[in-house]
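Re: your question from the hallway

Yes, I did run it. Sequences:
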Amino acid sequence: MKYRAEINIMPLKALLDPQGKTITASMKNLGLEEIENVRVGKHINLDVHAGSREEAKEKVNTACKKLLANPIMEYYEFELKEGDVT
Amino acid sequence: MKYRAEINIMPLKALLDPQGKTITASMKNLGLEEIENVRVGKHINLDVHAGSREEAKEKVNTACKKLLANPIMEYYEFELKEGDVT
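Structure:
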């Protein structure tokens, strides 16, 4: 069975996000004063082959912990969908 | 009314994603051969004040087009949620 994982990796809420702050400031120059609290992270899509949803979840967790996210500065969350999603 | 936008900005499907390719290759070294088709983009959260959902949508579209996404290389999609979401 193939699962599609949609992973978001974001800077921890307790940390400043300089890139987000800069974008928030730039919004003002674009006349978009109504936009605030911009935070920037990564979005990662991947396909994982696994026998069950539980197994797929475990593999994605391993990938996030070992490679994709840096737990000192980031947290991650993901959704799993079944089958080919484009 | 305050809306929270969750924006994903991804490399266009027709384009190679060298960062994603590298991560796919690294998965093998971690013993995660079952993971493939990794693509890496940005995830951006922001709050927008607007009178209506339509207005909020328009503002987020403007922000994406003018500042956040590069349409030559990226496409974007977003979800709007009402109120304070943490």
